[in-house]
Recover the amino acids of this structure.
């Protein structure tokens, strides 16, 4: 998806369950302009017209797509702001810590020090890391489980 998103001037998103979905985060992570269906939780996290642009009808989506295709500077400014918002609150590292805060209250006090956790780089060398990043996604389930247990010993 990242390659296709990065090649797009506008990424169109429609929500199936009236919720936020991965396409929204993935689009902003790629620094692309997101035109997404408005859903109730979106206003809690993003500013319409600054981080992304929303629509409520297909006609409105078409109208806004035409407008932003013709206004490249404004489209790029919104894409940049969406990217900055993504980095502040939507990376896998931040979302995983939020999930752990909800599911395992107090987990942070039991960690040896997240900054001291080691992980393997793409060549297989053990390196210190301040976060578990996108590379974790390509690892096997066993390897992911091992890393989680290093961070949260009683998981």
């Amino acid at each position: 998806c990242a390659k296709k998103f990065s090649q797009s001037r506008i990424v169109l998103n429609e929500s199936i369950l009236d919720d936020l979905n991965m396409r929204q985060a993935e689009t902003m992570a790629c620094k692309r302009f997101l035109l997404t269906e408005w859903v109730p939780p979106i206003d809690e996290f993003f500013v319409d017209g600054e981080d992304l642009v929303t629509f409520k009808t297909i006609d409105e989506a078409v109208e806004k797509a035409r407008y932003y295709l013709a206004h490249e500077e404004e489209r790029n400014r919104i894409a940049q702001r969406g990217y900055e918002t993504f980095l502040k609150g939507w990376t896998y590292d931040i979302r995983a810590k939020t999930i752990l805060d909800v599911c395992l209250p107090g987990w942070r006090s039991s960690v040896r020090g997240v900054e001291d956790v080691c992980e393997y780089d793409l060549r297989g060398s053990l390196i210190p890391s301040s976060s578990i990043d996108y590379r974790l996604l390509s690892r096997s389930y066993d390897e992911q489980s091992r890393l989680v247990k290093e961070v949260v010993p009683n998981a």
Observations:
- Residues 99 and 105 are 10 Å apart (CA to CA).
- The chain is about 50% helix and 10% strand.
- Residues 113-139 have pLDDT under 50 and may be disordered.
